[in-house]
Design brief:
Elements lengths: L17 E6 L4 H7 L5 E5 L13 H15 L4 E4 L27 H6 L2 H14 L5 E5 L5 H20 L9 E6 L2 H5 L1 H4 L5 E4 L1 H9 L17 H16 L3 E4 L10 H6 L4 E4 L4 H8 L4 H12 L4 H15 L1 H8 L3
Parallel strand pairs: 1-2, 1-8, 2-3, 3-4, 4-5, 5-6, 6-7
Helix pairs in contact: 2-4, 4-5, 11-14, 12-13, 13-14
This protein binds phosphoenolpyruvate and magnesium ion.
Length: 333
């Protein structure tokens, strides 16, 4: 019998879905491999910076990224550039206190305006490690095209530097963005002309669209991934990506939650990245679904007037396709 983690994440009518992992340390890769990951969809680099006395050097970062590439054996490794600010603090970057940190100098904004030297070191490490294999750069918290244009200019300058220094690097490294703000989702058509891929970060997209602090328990009742406004934005991003031949994935927690899988597939998302522990449950659901049924459900959910109604559409389909799988999936087994 084939081990479950080796089974293809394929729907009953033959659509294959890519299932990748979100990881935070090099060690996490072993768990991801055990659960049958097909690559790293999100490597959160901020943990290389937080809780350490020194900022990571270019060489240290190259070592980590190269190990990831080697462990993944040709499967893609998507590295997200520094996403500090918001709820994540880094002593070495001497950040100033802000009244609304989630709306302030977070992630790409911080990298471009307050610590460009640190950002450049990280980009150099990514370009150089990229020479060893399938590594891609992903930019967090993008809200306007100028940010992407500026990063791409910096990357071009760094390539020239590396050429002069005669150091090997990947000249054609792919650059993508996270779609985490409604502004990025609504302008996906324009971003698609500038980047190689999108990864929808639903954790932040929900926070910024519904206007709720994702860590504030008092408003947790509003934190509903099936709010039709969220489904609408996902659809908008997927449509823009397909039209412009840019690939798109979802890497927020929504991608690893069985109850949302029919809707994501039906909306046209065929790449999902999640904590490795969720890979089994998500794979099981996919193997019981038909793409056509998922599409009908997604259309119905999109036209729902509220989050509960949209969620019920998905749950109804799950119950129909396999009550026992649904039960197991919800218990995370
Ligand atoms: C997201 O916002 O969905 C995401 C994956 O990024 P993070 O949770 O690290 O903010
Ligand atoms: Mg995020």
């Amino acid at each position: 019998m084939i081990r479950e983690s080796r089974l293809r994440p394929e729907t009953l009518d033959g659509f294959t879905v890519q299932l990748a992992s979100n990881i935070e340390t090099l060690e996490d890769i072993q768990t991801a491999k055990k659960f049958g990951t097909s690559g790293v969809g999100l490597f959160r680099t901020e943990y290389m910076y937080m809780g350490n006395k020194e900022l990571p050097t270019e060489e240290a970062q190259i070592k980590t990224f190269t190990s990831l590439i080697n462990e993944m054996n040709g499967e893609p490794v998507i590295v997200r550039t520094l996403d500090i600010g918001g709820d994540k603090y880094c002593e070495n970057l001497s950040l100033r206190k802000e009244a609304n940190p989630f709306l302030g100098l977070r992630a790409i904004r911080l990298c471009l305006h307050e610590c460009q030297d640190v950002f450049r070191t990280q980009l150099r490490a990514l370009l150089r490690a990229g020479a060893a294999g399938n590594l891609k750069i992903m930019l967090p918290m993008i809200s306007c095209v100028e940010e992407v244009i500026q990063v791409k200019e910096i990357i071009e300058q760094l390539k020239k530097e590396l050429l002069k220094e005669k150091l090997p690097f990947n000249r054609d490294i792919e650059v993508g963005i996270m779609i985490e703000t409604p502004a990025a989702a609504l302008q996906a058509e324009h971003f698609a002309k500038l980047v190689d891929f999108f990864s929808i970060g639903t954790n932040d997209l929900i926070q910024y669209t519904i206007a709720i602090d994702r860590d504030n328990e008092k408003v947790a009742y509003l934190y509903e991934p099936t709010n039709p406004a969220i489904l609408y934005l996902i659809k908008k991003v997927v449509d823009a990506a397909k039209k412009n031949r840019v690939w798109v994935s979802v890497c927020g927690q929504m991608a690893g939650s069985p109850q949302y899988i029919p809707l994501l597939l039906g909306l046209g998302v065929h790449e999902l990245s999640m904590v490795p522990m969720s890979l089994g449950a998500v794979r099981r659901i996919i193997r019981k679904l038909k793409m056509h049924e998922a599409e009908v459900a997604a259309e119905k959910a999109l036209n729902s007037s509220n989050a509960r109604e949209a969620l019920n559409v998905s749950l109804e389909l799950l119950k129909k396709i396999s009550p026992e799988v649904t039960d197991l999936a919800f218990r995370g087994l």
